[in-house]
Specification:
The chain is an alpha/beta fold. It is 41% helix and 17% strand. A hairpin with a 4-residue loop joins β16 and β17. The structure holds pyridoxal-5'-phosphate.
Length: 467
């Protein structure tokens, strides 16, 4: 709206505003977006410039058109699309965590495009139990009594806490060294509060003793919670009781011991690559944890989900909590998770044979990566860019094993005709988008996280970006 009191100078400035219809018509062919979205974007940009002109900023029509074109292209780039991960970070939360293998993707395609027995019992023709098969398969894999899956690990934790705390018995005991932020600003104390639990912190940042837990137990205690330090580490003068000791203490007082494990590796990570041993859910349960909670899309390599496994009575209670319905998985998740879990069960002796790309990437030798890097760069022109193969370090990522950097191989590019950020941006804005990492003077593309099938696309993208 143009204010009634607008002065003649403001009126003349506002005449710089292009017409929404004309500008949208001119820009629409430059992006492959639905036309109503182009119109909306352009209208918002012109409204924004109108406000700026009214507060006396100077903008020519040319500037406005240029900024709108640029903004529209960036908006089009924000559409969810495939990305080649050349960061060397295996489970990159910003890049969608674990990719699914062909087997899970095939199952997804079949279930997504047809009807299924999601809640239908085929033998009786009556209504069936949702996720019944998956829950049994999960319990079998976890070597425990019962299991279920919900939307993600954070939801699984909130749900579990909500179920296990009640009025007058809502205290949850956690060691001070485990009050972590799990990413995206989510902190364990906030999750506890959301769940209706009252946090009781015990111990010091570096040390928690068994008697710290013991002293904190009152008639109001609902459970003891362990949170795996998955995205940071502490060292020096540190110490904490072993899980079996805490389990015994909890059980002597009739309390459940719950662990938020985060990653949920199904194999010995230290046997796949020179990295730390990530505790497995099976190990936690064997040591006396009553319920273990972990993500489906970290080291497990499945879809986004949160898995809860352990004591049958507790899992049954969790499934009865009304909030369970709010965070349940849909059929697309259930089918991909079912496929991931079945593969682990089938390849129990050797989980590296499971169809899980992150595990394949983790286990790749640097010789193999070096050979691919050599083939990938061998025909690239070097007039404007120095290209070399470098020994680098890859990381598991996704808030898992923060100490575990391990050898990898990267292509190092040092451009002489353009800046490093400019080259990096060109690759990010290409199709497919390629995301590497930069230092002051070079762009690195780590081979460990690049699917070999896309090597040729990487070569082609590099060729066009460096010339
Ligand atoms: C990653 C992580 C979570 C969150 O998992 P989401 O599946 O993203 O909800 C919770 N707890 C720990 C310890 C984690 O590492």
């Amino acid at each position: 709206m143009i204010p009634l009191h607008a002065s003649p100078t403001i009126m003349s400035k506002l005449s710089a505003l292009p017409s929404v219809e004309k500008l949208a018509a001119a820009l629409a062919p430059e992006v492959s977006l639905p036309r109503p979205l182009v119109n909306l974007f352009v209208r918002r940009e012109i409204d924004r410039f109108r406000q700026l002109l009214l507060v006396d900023e100077e903008h020519s029509r040319e500037d406005i058109e240029k900024a709108t074109r640029q903004g529209l292209r960036e908006f089009a780039n924000s559409r969810l699309q495939p990305v080649i991960n050349a960061t060397g970070v295996l489970i990159h939360t910003n890049l969608g965590r674990s990719p699914l293998g062909p087997r899970a993707a095939g199952a997804l395609q079949k279930i997504a495009t047809g009807y299924s027995n999601l809640e239908f019992d085929l033998p009786s023709g009556a209504r069936g139990k949702r996720a019944g098969y998956l829950e049994t398969a999960l319990a079998c894999l976890l070597e425990t009594q019962a299991a279920t899956a919900v939307n993600n690990c954070a939801a699984a934790l909130v749900l579990t806490l909500r179920t296990l705390v009640e009025d007058g018995k809502n205290e949850v005991i956690v060691s001070r060294s485990e009050l972590v932020e799990i990413g995206g600003g989510f902190r364990i104390p906030d999750i506890l509060e959301t769940s209706g639990a009252k946090l009781v912190e015990v111990g010091a940042t570096n040390k928690t003793h068994l008697h710290d837990y013991e002293k904190a137990i009152t008639p109001q205690t609902a459970l003891i919670l362990k949170v795996h330090r998955s995205n940071f580490y502490i060292g020096g003068f540190i110490g904490e009781p072993e899980i079996p000791e805490i389990a015994k203490l909890a059980h002597d007082h009739g309390l459940p011991l719950v662990e938020d494990l985060g990653s949920g590796a199904m194999m010995n990570t230290d046997e796949l690559a020179p990295i730390e041993h990530e505790p497995t859910p099976q190990e936690c349960l064997r040591r006396g944890i009553d319920l273990v909670i972990f993500s489906g899309d970290k080291l497990l390599g499945g879809p986004q989900s949160g898995i809860i496994g352990g004591r049958a009575d507790l899992v049954a209670e969790i499934k009865k909590e009304p909030f369970f319905r709010a965070v349940r998985c849909d059929k697309l998740i259930l089918t991909t998770l079912q496929e991931s879990i079945d593969q682990y069960l089938e390849t129990k002796a050797d989980p590296t044979q499971a169809d899980v790309p992150v595990l394949t990437f983790l286990a790749k030798s640097t010789d193999d990566l070096r050979a691919r890097a050599e083939a990938l760069i061998k025909d690239l022109p070097t007039d404007n860019t120095a290209i070399a193969i470098e020994d680098t370090l890859a990381r598991p990522g996704g808030g898992t094993m923060p100490r575990s950097e391990f050898p990898s191989i990267a292509i190092k590019l040092v451009p002489s005709n353009q800046s490093v950020p400019k080259l990096a941006k060109k690759l990010r804005l290409g199709t497919p988008a390629i995301v590497g990492y930069t230092t002051d003077d070079a762009l690195f593309l780590d081979l460990r996280t690049i699917f070999p099938e896309t090597d040729k696309e990487v070569t082609a993208a590099l060729e066009s970006a460096i010339t």
